């Protein structure tokens, strides 16, 4: 996949928070159990998302994480940028420096329009949009035994 494992987990965790519509904070352990992801890894991801202003965190027995803003104001692109940076939206798919119209890689002409569409899609889709489809279509966020 083009996204790092950290980024995949970050998107899934944010969608988990957006789709349950709880008031208050949800513990990282609860999210970890729901998504079947390692809690320590998810805690580091939550810290990064908190530093990026996507989540807010509260320590203590009733603490956890929550979305820092309404789900309709957080795009998937914000999460990707916080976790992986802009490379998926700007760089060569083969990782070649200086790839461009003057010195393209073998996939440049196919990747450039795809990269632009990916950027537009991730920038247009909010957590609220995706959470609504999760609830309406019963989409899954966690691995199942059939995976």
List the defining traits of the structure above.
147 residues; elongated; 53% helix; single chain; mainly alpha
Task: Lay out the secondary structure.
Elements (H helix, E strand, L loop, with lengths): L4 H16 L7 H8 L3 H13 L3 E4 L5 E4 L8 H9 L2 H4 L17 H17 L2 H11 L10
Antiparallel strand pairs: 1-2
Helix pairs in contact: 1-2, 1-3, 1-4, 1-7, 2-3, 4-6
Number of helical stretches of at least 4 residues: 7
The beta-strand count equals: 2
Low-pLDDT stretches: none
Strand order of the largest sheet: 1-2
Q: Pairing-aware structural class of the strands and helices?
A: mainly alpha
Morphology: elongated
Short description:
This protein has helices at residues 5-20, 28-35, 39-51, 76-84, 87-90, 108-124, 127-137; strands at residues 55-58, 64-67. It is mainly alpha-helical.
Give an overview of the whole structure.
The chain is mostly helical. Helices cover 53% and strands 5% of the residues. It is built from seven helices and two strands; from the N terminus they run αααββαααα. It has helices at residues 5-20, 28-35, 39-51, 76-84, 87-90, 108-124, 127-137, and strands at residues 55-58, 64-67. It has a two-stranded antiparallel sheet. A hairpin with a 5-residue loop joins strand 1 (55-58) and strand 2 (64-67). Helix 1 packs antiparallel against helix 4. It is elongated. The two termini are 16 Å apart.
């Amino acid at each position: 996949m083009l996204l790092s494992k950290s980024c995949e987990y970050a998107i899934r965790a944010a969608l988990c928070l957006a789709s349950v519509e709880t008031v208050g904070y949800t513990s990282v352990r609860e999210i970890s159990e729901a998504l079947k992801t390692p809690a320590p890894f998810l805690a580091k991801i939550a810290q990064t998302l908190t530093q990026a202003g996507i989540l807010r965190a509260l320590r203590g027995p009733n603490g956890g994480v929550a979305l820092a803003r309404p789900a309709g104001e957080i795009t998937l692109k914000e999460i990707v940028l916080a976790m992986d940076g802009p490379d998926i939206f700007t760089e060569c798919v083969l990782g070649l420096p200086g790839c461009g119209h003057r010195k393209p890689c073998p996939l440049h002409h196919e990747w450039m329009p795809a990269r632009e569409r990916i950027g537009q899609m991730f920038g247009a889709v909010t957590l609220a949009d995706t959470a609504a489809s999760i609830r309406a279509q019963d989409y899954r966020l966690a691995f199942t035994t059939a995976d």
